[in-house]
Every structure is written in C-alpha cells, then in structure tokens.
Design goal:
This protein is 74% helix and 0% strand. It contains 15 helices and no strands. 46% of the residues are buried. The N terminus is likely disordered.
Length: 306
C-alpha cells in the first residue's frame, strides 16, 4: 500500500494542475484585479460577502472563457512552443471535457453575479465572455491582424462589471478604465508577438508582425502607447480623479513611452527584425503588466486617500 499511495497522489495532483491550467490563472489574476478595482471605487458601500461573490464570479467567468479558448485553439496551440504543453493539445485533458468545463463555469458565473447583484452586471459579464469566445477566439484571432485591437475589448470589461455590480449602472469612470485597458492591450500583446512571431507564423495566426512585418509593428506599438497616454490622463482631465492618480499615471506613462521608443529604435535588420533578441520588446511586455497593475492601484488609492 505504501508504494501505491504516492503514485495516486501524483496522478491526482497532475490532473488538478491541468484543470487549473485550463483557467489561465495568470490572465485571470490581472482581469480579476481590474474588476475588483472597479467594484471598490464605486460610490456606494458593498457588503463584503457581495464583493467576494462579485470577484469570484469574474474569476470563474475568466477561467471558463479561458477553458473554451483552449478547447477551440487546440490545433494552433499544438504548433506553438509557447502553448504546446497546454492540457488539451498535450492530450492530458480531452477536448470535449474542456469545452463542457468552460461552458459550465461561464454559465454559473453569470447566474451567480446576477443573483448576488443585478442584471446589468450579469449582462456585462455575459457580454465579456461572448466577446472573448466568439468575437475574438473564433473569429478575429484567425482572420485579421487587428485581432488584438478589436478583441482587446473582451479583457477591458471587468472594471465596468465591478462598478455595475455595486451601482446597477455604468458610469463615466469605469468607461474610461475600460478605454485604458482597451488601448493598453495592443502594445502589450504586440510586444509579445514581436519575439513570438515565429510561433504565430508557424500556426498561421495573422498577428501584426506576421502580416505587416516587425517594423510596422514597432511603429504601431509607439502609436498605441501615445493613445494610451492620452486616454489614461482623461480621468484627471475630467475631474474624476485627483493629484495622486495624475502623478502616478504621468510617471507610468513616461516609462511606457520610453519602452515603446526603445522597441522602435532597437537594432534591426532591413526587415525590422531585432538583432538583440528582442530584448526591448520583452522588457516592454513585462513593464506593461506592471503599468496596468500600478495604474489601477493609483485609481483606488486616489479615491480613498486623495
């Protein structure tokens, strides 16, 4: 018996990790965080239990959508080094099981937030799931190099969902937070796509550097970073946030612009391919994650302290 138990535990642990991996926990973390900030900065008091249910619902919805995405993308995931070890393409989870898992979680999350809060929040959550699964995963991702630009709306919904769960309506501040995430998404993902270009090309995914080339992508990263800077300053310009947010965002925007300029001026060959191993692009991708997290922290601190 003592020789069997460790093997059983190991198998159970592996299965559990695969089911967790289907939820895309890294993506979930940032999505849940932005949704929680939308909830916390709303101008009404929310009972802690309700707040917990709202955050849990957003997490479950994100995970469910991620599982459906992995089910649908299993063919191209198998062709890319970055995703080949995912549970479905690696054969550790059956496609039908992943699909049922994702649909079940998605439906449950919408029902849960609807019962705990209101129909506006439930509708916003359902729309975000459908947009990510149908509009982005099933249509845009494989059909246009603008997939990230349009599809970025899916990941921008959480602040609106959190605010709507608290207030029952959609206000100007969460709409601007939506816009910030929307304009943040292209430079964030295009930085990744610059050094993952071969993977996307092998899988036939029309990411911008695959279709338009690295040089064009570098310029687009700078353009969208400038647009992001303008949008991120809008809450202060409209009097919705104070000096804490303004100071923090100005510093964060300056850092992002420096990163984008470094990507543009990276040593390149005639095609715009980096000769430095895309080091600036990798740094920009990592900085973009810190940027969004700290910007949303600044919104929250400004609301409660400033």
């Amino acid at each position: 018996m003592s020789g069997v138990a460790p093997d059983v535990d190991l198998a159970l642990g592996t299965d559990t990790r695969d089911w967790i991996a289907l939820l895309k926990p890294r993506v979930m973390t940032l999505v849940v965080f932005t949704g929680a900030i939308g909830l916390f900065v709303a101008p009404v008091h929310v009972h802690p239990l309700v707040a917990f249910i709202v955050i849990l619902s957003i997490a479950i919805a994100t995970g469910g959508a991620g599982a459906i995405n992995m089910w649908y993308d299993r063919d191209i995931d198998a062709l890319m080094r970055r995703t080949a070890s995912r549970p479905v393409p690696a054969g550790r989870v059956r496609p039908d099981d992943a699909l049922a898992y994702g649909i079940g979680l998605s439906i449950f999350s919408v029902l849960l937030i609807g019962l705990a809060t209101n129909l506006v929040a439930a509708a916003a959550l359902a729309l975000s799931i459908l947009f990510y699964v149908v509009a982005y995963t099933m249509w845009l991702k494989r059909s246009t190099p603008q997939n990230i630009v349009i599809g970025g709306a899916a990941g921008a919904f959480p602040p609106i969902i959190g605010w709507a769960a608290a207030t029952g309506q959609i206000g100007l501040l969460p709409t601007l937070l939506f816009a910030i995430v929307f304009f943040w998404t292209p430079p964030h993902f295009w930085a990744l796509s610059l050094y993952a270009c071969k993977d996307y090309g092998a899988a036939g995914v029309p990411m911008l550097p695959v279709v338009k080339g690295a040089r064009h992508t570098r310029w687009q990263i700078l353009v969208y970073t400038i647009l992001l800077t303008l949008v991120s300053l809008a809450p202060s310009a409209l009097g919705l946030t104070g000096w804490i947010y303004l100071a923090a965002t100005a510093l964060l925007d300056a850092g992002f612009l420096v990163c984008a300029i470094r990507v543009l001026t990276d040593t390149q060959d005639r095609t715009g391919t980096s000769l430095s191993g895309d080091k600036p692009a990798r740094q920009t991708f990592r900085y973009s994650l810190v940027y969004l997290a700290l910007l949303f922290v600044a919104v929250c601190v400004d609301r409660f302290v400033g």
